[in-house]
Write a structure and sequence with these properties.
Radius of gyration of chain B: 20 Å
Order of helices and strands of chain B: EHEEHHEEHEEHEE
Strand order of the largest sheet of chain A: 1-2-3-6-7
Number of strands of chain B: 9
Largest interface: A-B, 26 and 15 residues
Radius of gyration of chain A: 15 Å
Structural class of chain B: alpha+beta
Strand content of chain A: 25-35%
Oligomer: heterodimer
Number of strands of chain A: 8
Shape of chain B: globular
Strand order of the largest sheet of chain B: 2-3-1-4
Helix content of chain A: 10-25%
Number of helices of chain A: 3
Chain lengths: 167, 179
């Protein structure tokens, strides 16, 4: 379909709660294609959520395989109505976000998650994701609830950094 | 439009209202706060701000704006105009270095001297003395930027310095992922 512009904060759509997808309408289909096209078009982007392209659907696209250091992953996935059923452990990453291009921040996330979601035909699936992929999915699901990584930073003094370089 | 930048430093005994007082003056005189850091060091208030303004001022002009505030809060102020805001060195890796052990003079200096010789840039440094009064524990956490081309042997050399100081050291790379 098309490579869409990624909305940046303070666009109010980024703080909205997205709607559950109950049927695959033509607009939902288009959104899925646009999400994948937009994610694939930027070399460094490993994930994107529908609100980031202005669509308030509970849909995310992730591709942990784009990170060469990530060996344990499920490849490119479109996840509709994703829901985390179980969290385990904790790890910290310094996260950046296409919607907040000027900052990075240290965020604590679960090391391992069990996620239930629906695929593009609305078949229910459950996967276990770990490490980088788990963090990526948690970051993207947050977008569906209007939560940005800066909302999860614990200490603004020690955990928020002005981005020092652009990839 | 060209912006003029100034680094402002404030130090005083801590009490409520200092930040409001300083930022009120900045707001009223038309300064924009570009970056800031404020914390208590052993209970002493300290704040550094990078501010900008369309107009050019001397350090003395800016100090005059704060003369009343400095009297009111017994604040020390220093002002430095900044000519160049950008750094020319290219860095491609960021590390967090934690050094901890029994408190003794020279820990910061010896670590910083070594990093300086390797052209490793300290971008953030925090030190704390914790533990009991008769058994103080020194903790230093640095965020450093390592220049392109430097091989990883600097970590081993730093470990050796830490051993000589009798401290423990931990170095970990920080990777930033854009989601």
């Amino acid at each position: 379909m098309a490579i869409k512009e990624v909305l940046t904060y303070p666009n109010p759509l980024l703080k909205e709660i997205s709607e559950e997808v109950k049927e695959v309408t033509p607009d939902v289909k288009d959104t899925i294609i646009d999400l994948i096209d937009t994610m694939d078009s930027t070399g460094h982007s490993v994930g994107i959520a529908a609100p980031q392209i202005g669509k308030l659907y509970r849909i995310i696209a992730v591709d942990a395989s784009k990170n060469k250091k990530c060996t344990n992953h499920h490849g490119k996935m479109v996840m509709i109505n994703p829901e985390i059923l179980k969290w385990e452990g904790m790890l910290q990453f310094r996260e950046g976000c296409m919607s907040l291009p000027d900052y990075t921040g240290n965020v604590n996330r679960a090391r391992k998650i069990l996620v239930q979601y629906q695929d593009e035909k609305l078949n229910t699936k459950v996967i276990e994701a770990e490490e980088f992929e788990a963090v990526l999915i948690q970051h993207e699901i947050d977008h569906l609830d209007g939560v940005l990584f800066i909302d999860r930073i614990i200490s603004k003094r020690t955990d928020l950094f002005r981005r020092k370089k652009y990839k | 439009m060209k912006k003029n930048y100034y680094a402002l430093t404030f130090v005083s005994v801590d009490k409520p209202g200092i930040v409001a007082e300083v930022t009120k003056v900045l707001y009223e005189e038309g300064f924009n706060i570009e970056d800031s850091s404020s914390t208590l060091l052993r209970g002493f208030f300290s704040m550094i701000l990078i501010v900008s303004h369309e107009k050019s001022f001397s350090a003395k002009d800016i100090i005059t704006y704060f003369s009343e505030s400095c009297k009111k809060y017994d604040l020390s102020i220093s002002v430095k105009p900044i000519d160049n805001m950008t750094s020319a060195t290219k860095y491609d890796r960021t590390y967090i270095v934690s050094v901890y052990g029994s408190d003794k003079p020279g820990i910061v200096y010896k670590v910083a001297k070594f990093l300086s010789e390797k052209k490793i840039n300290i971008v953030d440094l925090q030190t704390k003395v914790a533990g009991k009064e008769d058994k103080p524990l020194y903790i230093m956490v640095l965020e450093v930027n390592v220049p392109s081309g430097l091989d990883e042997s600097w970590m081993l050399s730093l470990k050796k310095i830490s051993d000589e100081l009798g401290t423990d050291i931990n170095v970990r790379q920080i990777e930033t992922y854009e989601f």
